[in-house]
From TrEMBL:
Residues noted as binding heme in the record, renumbered to the chain: 100
Organism of origin: Solanum verrucosum
Known cofactor(s): heme
Record's protein name: Cytochrome P450
Keyword list, A-Z: Heme, Iron, Metal-binding, Monooxygenase, Oxidoreductase
Domain of life per record: Eukaryota
Family: Belongs to the cytochrome P450 family.
Record flagged with keyword Oxidoreductase: yes
Coiled coil: none
Molecular function in Gene Ontology: heme binding; iron ion binding; monooxygenase activity; oxidoreductase activity, acting on paired donors, with incorporation or reduction of molecular oxygen
Matches recorded under Gene3D superfamilies: Cytochrome P450
Pfam family, one: p450
Length: 164
């Protein structure tokens, strides 16, 4: 979550696209994003997959290299994935017998949490400087400097929360 929000804060156009996708899908409904909506939000999935590509949760898998602008955050590269594996383009949880059994749960929780944060809040950096993306020491790739961001409730959320 921290890495995904950091990438979105450094790429405000991607954050805006994700907000527009969620707003378009939910329309003027008076409800929060739920699990049934996740399948209809390909850009949100692209953000999660791109984050996992750039910052895998456990960087212990076989080393790999992306040939198309590998250091650039581009969720669009995962928009047209067919099926779960799409020819093994992305395997952040491993594969086969050694794959993580919690992959589906992790992807659902990440989608719901990130989607809810995008739906409910306007996000911005605390300064004009880009968020520091330096990796810290550790097995799970923590950020060297924890994310610090500003958020405020989005205008359309007042009506939504009044109905809860």
């Amino acid at each position: 979550m921290e890495w995904a929000l950091s990438f979105l804060l450094n790429n405000p156009e991607a954050l805006k696209k994700a907000q527009n996708e969620i707003d378009t899908h939910l329309g003027e409904s008076s409800r929060l994003l739920d699990e049934s909506d996740l399948a209809q939000l390909p850009y949100l999935h692209g953000i999660i997959n791109e984050t996992l590509r750039l910052c895998p949760a456990a960087p212990l898998l076989v080393p790999h290299e992306s040939s198309d602008e590998p250091n650039e955050f581009r969720p669009e590269r995962f928009i047209d994935i067919k099926g779960q594996r799409d020819g093994f383009r992305l395997m952040p949880f491993g594969y086969g017998r050694r794959g993580c059994p919690g992959e589906n749960l992790a992807m659902h929780v990440a989608g719901l949490a990130l989607g809810s944060l995008i739906q409910c809040f306007e996000w911005e950096r605390v300064s004009e400087e880009l968020v520091d993306m330096t990796e810290g020491p550790g097995l799970t790739m923590p950020k060297a400097i924890p994310l610090l961001a500003k958020c405020r409730q989005r205008q359309n959320i007042d009506n939504l929360l009044a109905h809860l």
